[in-house]
Amino acid sequence: MTNAIELTPAEASIRARIGFDVAELQAAQRIEDNGEAVVELLASLIERRAIPDIRRKYFTDPKYFTGRAKTSWKGVFESYGEEGEEIFRHPQFLKFLRYFLDGPDLPRPLMATFQDKVGDHGADTVGDVEPLCALARDLARQYAMVPSRASEEFYKLALECGLSEPRARHVRNAVHAMK
What we know:
Elements: H1 9-17, H2 22-27, H3 31-47, H4 53-60, H5 73-79, H6 85-89, H7 94-102, H8 108-121, H9 126-142, H10 147-160, H11 165-176
């Protein structure tokens, strides 16, 4: 998968109004207007079920949360008092919206290489996932990525390539542990 979702013309118009740089939004005092556009876009995407299940689960299912808390990313927002549409209006939600729309934040050639290797090797056992871990580390080095940031994007990529959550987490941890 790992592709951007197809937007309707109306959704593309709304997306064009959304700023993703939080510092820029704060400086221009556009947080509130931006939040309204995010809510409007998400309402349309949710209504037509355009957000891929794995991307939705990444945000809502505690099983896909890679932090220490036993909650989901949505639960993290709720623990800070955000509820319902307030979550979508929050500037920190923008990184999740970008993922919903565009997929993992990795270079397209990197994703294609990884996806091809998943197709070649599968990942039914821990032994099968080791070559994917090595490839992920090699790709992260090749693209001079910061392991702590890249690891979460590789996790998303692995999930989108069809790896089970435990196998995807194994790939994530391999990248995260790079020195």
